[in-house]
């Protein structure tokens, strides 16, 4: 079985953490190693991690409070090289076949593209605090087209690569760490997808949900329902803010890879029309 290092960043996650950790250990047909970085929790998270570590179920460490994006990048750097890597949020639940299904796709992509950095991601079920399904597809609910959002110009304008569904190979890890520029705005999953796509890597996906993406009052990033008509109207009504935001995004993505303003705007408008 392939070894996958699951990289989990925690921060005051005591409420849902045990349920998530259990779902990681219940993964089918893969060898899972859990590496946790705590980002300065003040609740019972550290005690829970200590208990699981005493049972030899995970390894964990802590350092300065970095925020989620930098914390995940620290985990990626700390993890043992030469494996496969999956990011994990503290408050979701993984379906038992999440990693095996994603690994099957990874192997097919690697066979077709030997020596390439590869990221594979998946859809998610959106669920409430009790894990009751709110929507059966994060992609459809959010108006995302992973079949389109696979190249650097499109990923600059809209990201569909959700961090907690990412599986990357060791070549992708090495590339991301080599090219990483510390960033206060663009979060880890976007950095990883942009870096791999810009440097000739492969972004692929499994068209199925593998995560119960829990929505609750403490979400750092959550799901929002998408409507094309409403989105266009809102952009037109707030054109000043839209322009300012896109200028910021354009400047930020150019810290990761070069894209002209004309290419950026072309793909932004085209995607808005086809999504």
Explain how this protein is built.
The protein has 275 residues and is α/β, with parallel strands linked by helices. It has a single domain, classed as Alpha-Beta Complex (Spore Coat Polysaccharide Biosynthesis Protein SpsA, Chain A), CATH 3.90.550. It has eleven helices and nine strands. It has helices at 14-25, 45-54, 68-78, 98-112, 138-142, 152-157, 170-179, 188-198, 228-237, 239-253, 261-274, and strands at 3-10, 31-38, 59-62, 84-88, 93-94, 118-127, 133-135, 167-168, 202-214. The longest helix is centred in the middle third of the chain and has 15 residues, at 98-112. The chain is globular. The protein starts with a strand and ends with a helix. The mean pLDDT is 92.
